[in-house]
Amino acid sequence: MNYQNIMEILVEEAYDKVSPTFECCTCEQCHNDIVAFALNQLPPKYVATQKGEVYSKTYSLGLQHSADITAALMKGANMVKANPRH
Ligand SMILES: [Zn+2]
């Protein structure tokens, strides 16, 4: 497989940055639920990679996308807070 959805990486990175502001549980189950919820809200962004190399953080989608990602993560956190599965 020589492609990947870098939205997954961007959402994970954004989660690490913004999750302390959520006042939401950050156990593995809640983390996964929030990230999965956010990814379902956002368009996938596939890129070709070379020989399975993981795409680096140098890829930027710009500020509008990062605002979208943060908003999607916040919605996910609210959902998890209301209905935690842990
Ligand atoms: Zn939890």
Architecture overview:
The chain is globular, with a radius of gyration of 13 Å. The protein has three helices and two strands; from the N terminus they run E-H-H-E-H. 55% of the residues lie in helices and 7% in strands. The protein has a two-stranded antiparallel ribbon with strand order 1-2. It has one domain (3-82). The protein binds zinc ion. Zinc ion is lined by residues 25, 27, 29-30, 84, 86.
Class derived from helix and strand content: mainly alpha
**SS summary, helix count:** 3
Outline, from the CA principal axes?
globular
Our count of domains comes out at: 1
Q: How many DSSP-defined strands?
A: 2
Helix content: 40-55%
- Tell me, rounded to a whole number, the average pLDDT: 86
Largest sheet features? 2 strands, antiparallel
SSE arrangement, N to C: EHHEH
**Hetero ligands:** zinc ion
Report Rg. 13 Å
Strand arrangement across the biggest beta sheet: 1-2
% residues in beta strands: 5-15%
